[in-house]
Specification:
5-stranded parallel beta sheet, alpha/beta, about 15% strand, 4-stranded antiparallel beta sheet, Alpha-Beta Plaits, Malonyl-Coenzyme A Acyl Carrier Protein, domain 2, about 300 residues, 2 domains
Amino acid sequence: MNKGFLLFPGQGAQVVGMAKDSYDTGGHAVALFEEASEILGFDLAQLTFQSDQETLSRTENCQPALLVSCMAILNTLRERKALSITGASGLSLGEYTALTILETLDFADAVRLVRQRGELMEAAGRKSQGGMVSVIGLDGEAVNAVCQKVTESGAGKVWAANYNCPGQVVISGEKAGLVAAEDLLREAGARKTIPLNVTGAFHTPLMEEARAGLWKILTEVSLRTPLTKFINNVDAAMITDPEMIRQSLARQLVSPVRWEQSCRLALASGEKTFFEIGPGRTLAGLMRRIDKDVKVVSISSLEDIEALPG
């Protein structure tokens, strides 16, 4: 039997055609897209499989598309192979997929939530005119020091937003502050700084308006205790209480994603095998930077599923 901890990607992993081969097999994958389309009021399969990358990558579009695609791939895997899930976590948006798999969230609620979350983030991003930059080759402490220096200088507010793995931190904030920070980060020894194609300063206090809107929506959604281990982003902690999870999801919009710390907690809890479910192999790469000996299996296609034992 295939047994392990599930990892789900966040915004940025989306690609036109993701989960298409799962959809073409019929079964639960088709049902998921049809249900999501009815909820959203548009054809999600058409958006995911036939639109262009720019349209798919709009925040309000890619979030439901990515959630449903990951669910479709996982359901196809479960239809064809034996799988025992020991726990789950997801990078930012991927938290909603993890919580749906663990039956904390109903699928219909998750689809509505991520669509509204995307709309709120897009609106807040337009208002704040912020951005994000990936920093390669510096640790979190050094990056934080630069962010603090830039913010205190008045050049612009900047924060560390994603602690992805050793030597990879993403900063987020006002565009002028990001430009100033890039120069200082390279002076501090960063090998590379890469501006990201996003529409706002996600995971910072500049998303407060989006957080407030999401919180109002979250209070109207029923949450249950996860079936097994769930590790959240903002605290890198195992949490089971539905109310704590609710608060965590709202805080996530204005707080850094502690992905490296979350992965280390999963390893410390005894996890030895991980399955990355969804397009790309980014999470597998991050995990191997955290622990080069860990086993990570990336599942993004029917071919990947068929290659599994059982």
